[in-house]
Amino acid sequence: MRKFTLLLSMLVLSVLAFAQRTVTGTVRDDKGEPVPFATITEVGKNNVVKADANGAFSIRVADGSQLQSTASGHQSQTITVSGATASFTLATSNQQLTEVVVTTALGQQRQAKELGYSTARVRGQEVTQSKPVNLQNGLTGKVSGLNVQTVNSGVFENTRITLRGIRSLTGNNQPMLILDGVPIALSFLNSINPNDIQDVNILKSAAATAVYGPDGVNGAIVVTTRRGNRNRPTISASHTFQVSQVSFMPKFQTRFGSGSSVDVNGIGVYDGIENQGYGDEFDGSLRQIGRAFNGDTQRVTYEARPDEKRKFWDLGTTNQTDVSFSTGDFYLS
What we know:
Blueprint: H1 2-19, E1 20-29, E2 39-42, E3 48-50, E4 56-62, E5 66-70, E6 77-80, E7 85-90, E8 100-102, E9 109-111, E10 119-123, H2 124-127, H3 135-139, E11 146-150, E12 159-163, E13 176-179, E14 182-184, E15 197-203, E16 220-225, E17 234-244, E18 261-262, E19 268-269, E20 286-293, E21 296-301, H4 308-312, E22 316-327, E23 330-332
Parallel strand pairs: 1-7, 13-16
Antiparallel strand pairs: 1-4, 2-3, 2-5, 5-6, 8-9, 10-15, 11-12, 13-14, 15-16, 17-22, 18-19, 20-21, 22-23
């Protein structure tokens, strides 16, 4: 009898253990963004887990159990387990939210009221709102104290970035760049595809970047790229076409030709290879331009041509096509 009772007890325990399964899923808000560190609780039991920074979670429950997800600033949601996956979509609460910011490249998160320095977060949707072809243009005008200046022309133009003005008259004044936790040269910023950005955190002061040592004295731009979608495989495609042309040219005088010296009478002397405009007055005669090679010379009418510099620039066009595929922890673009 004892053996039969023991066998029956083991059989019941085996059935109960077999009925349980591991359920995985994600917690997202009503905009489709992950809700980091949400709490998932099995209703009526002391079975609680925390989602990770990407809103992903894993919990072991029985079929038919109810799971409830809660998160600060969001309304709770309860679902019934059916299968090995479960997904929550939490609506944003009307209550005042407590802002959470990423303070370092190590992924440490703090509430805004706990920080003794200023930070700013720009989401990926805000960066690509105006369809920029590079990241620095997407950040222009998004953060107070962030000054982005273009120093040359082109598709991937170089920029000069400063946070809260100039700190040194002789040293470097640009912030450091941290891409997915790795410090890299700031010049790499124009090579990052804006459509691959999840968010950008701007650390504006040396206090905010003390963990990086002297390299972070001018602040830091912390870039986090996108990750895969755990819910389902996703394919995205987009195309951007831009046209650019010279907006304005500096105004030049149209009375005197090229030259940099004067004769004994104080009249400017023409020089065909000089960039300054201190030659004699335009008179419509034929003048040699440039240097003579092998006895060959080129002559043009000595007159003002204010539109020649504008004609040098062609109409610029930019075609950018983006295709991305994501699933699980995998993201390819």
